[in-house]
Design a protein that fits this description.
This protein has 6 helices and no strands. With 148 residues, the chain is mainly alpha-helical. It has one domain. The protein is elongated and about 65 Å long.
Length: 148
């Protein structure tokens, strides 16, 4: 129980650290102000969706028990694709990565390429921790030990 709870908390923290870094890396130029704002909103929306999907993956929750920020602003095609997907966290993670790469290429993220790897690494570490927590949930406790 404690190991699973620890893993889930670390998933949340890795996601928070990545988003926090990406917010700090945003350009301060007035020229990009509107695009930066759009990027930040999309990033927060996707991070919310990622965390919700992660919790749904490892917990027994009804889909409507967790609130996702501004879900209605996502395209219907994306939501349908996500709903049909077996690996929702991986799908959302790929959307976040694409958003980051596009923002860096268009200079919304004003940071040297080596520094952009840090939030990507944190997101990746969060996914590894999620898989570790999922293992604890999926693999039953060995029966002989349960009898002790």
């Amino acid at each position: 129980f404690w190991e699973g709870a620890t893993q889930i908390r670390e998933v949340r923290q890795e996601c928070f650290n990545a988003v926090n870094s990406l917010m700090a890396f945003c350009s301060n130029s007035e020229e990009y102000a509107e695009r930066v704002h759009d990027f930040q909103l999309k990033l927060i929306r996707l991070a919310s969706l990622l965390h919700c999907s992660a919790l749904q993956e490892v917990c027994e929750l009804d889909n409507d028990q967790l609130e996702i920020l501004e879900l209605e602003k996502m395209s219907k095609d994306r939501l349908h694709f996500l709903q049909m997907s077996k690996d929702r966290c991986e799908v959302v993670m790929s959307w976040i990565q694409r958003l980051i790469f596009d923002a860096h290429r268009s200079q919304i993220l004003d940071v040297a390429p080596p520094l952009i790897t840090r939030p990507l690494t944190e997101l990746s570490t969060g996914m590894i921790r999620l898989n570790n927590a999922d293992k604890l949930q999926e693999i039953p406790f060995p029966f002989p030990y349960a009898q002790l």
